[in-house]
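forwarding from the other thread:

> can someone predict this with iron/sulfur cluster?

sure thing
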Amino acid sequence: MKAQEALETLAQQIRGCTRCDLYKGRTNAVPGEGPVHAEIMFIGEGPGAREDKLGRPFVGASGRFLDELLEQAGLTREEVWITNVVKCRPPGNRDPQVDEIETCTTNYLENQIKIVNPSIIVTLGRHSMNWFISDAKITQVHGQMHKVGRRFVIPMFHPAAALHQSRFKPMLLEDFAKLPALLEEARAALGKSKSKKTNRKK
Ligand code: SF4
């Protein structure tokens, strides 16, 4: 099966998934989106109200801020893959629970990562970070590149946290500003060259 078809098959499975209780409160599951072989994948925590309504990731206030941060790093949404550790909205925007993250990631996120095969994964928020680096504290490791398997993981604060608590905003801006240099570093370490820009596909 081709990569695009495999991603679409996963997206269909996610939209009909009842593997954890989060399906009960969703309007739409949010599989994620981006070009098939994006160099960078952003992984947040879970869909919010607007994401749940539209079935797309990061389309509310956090999404607008993420667009600004991407622009600052010389990137656009069309170049990156964006998803979450859980694909259905936790009720009242509560934190996703360990068992929900475990069920959703092992069935979907792991496969999405395998297919897209990004050089860098940017985790947004501590739940996403702790799925890759279990004992890390985000205040200590944000903006640092960690080798995890065949790729690099850079933990960052969630854009929503930076919007709600102004002390996180300068740190998030600074981490995004470092992203182009870190991407170069990752390419060199992985022996990859700069990938061509591709059209966004869900
Ligand atoms: S959060 Fe993930 S595992 Fe749970 S119902 Fe939604 S798609 Fe399925």
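Residues 98-116 form the longest helix (19 residues). thats all i got for now
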